[in-house]
Request: fold
Amino acid sequence: DRIGKAGDRHQRAGAGVLSAFSKISKRWTFLGYLSFFIPLLILSFYAVVGGWVLQYGLQFMLGNGLEMASPRYFAGFSADPLVPTVLALVFLALTAGIVIRGVQKGVEKTCRFVMPTLLVMLIILAGYCICMPGGLEGVAYMFYPDFSEFTPGLLIAALGQVFFSLTIGAGLIITYGSYLPKKENLVTSARAVAVFDVAVAVLAAMMVIPAVFAFSGGSPE
Reply:
């Protein structure tokens, strides 16, 4: 109930992260600015990775798929001081073009196409990787518990991944919440977000880990 009431206050604020906290209490204004700068730091990471994705997508369309499969390709490409930088700037420009249109006309409209496409790609790739020689060993490695590996450090890493994956503390959820109808149940919406986030993460792992086993001869190392 306490969490729901706090969420209701953010929803009623109807404002972005910079002013939502100050509307609750002037003492928490600094949290709004902190939540604004955190996504900027995260964006520096996504811009680089987004540039890599653009490079691989472009090379794939040019028919250079086999060349990209070599680890030496990535090592050579990422060491180039010019091309990754230019592609990162292109990625930032594309992102700005979407964000500048607003949440509903920009982000929401784009996600209606991008997210289902991503989900279909994940399902196809996960199925393909599981069917590769050694892929089922990767699935068993994922779901067979080994409690000897359960350490405080592992728990902290898992919690860090939860915060990163759900963008907790980054202010994005508060901004999106300001667009929700007043009758929307925030607790139910938060649960749905967490469930779907975990489901997609497991699906992505079922793509990556079996592929690692397949290409490393049945070993995660």
Q: What stands out?
A: Residues 29-61 form the longest helix (33 residues).
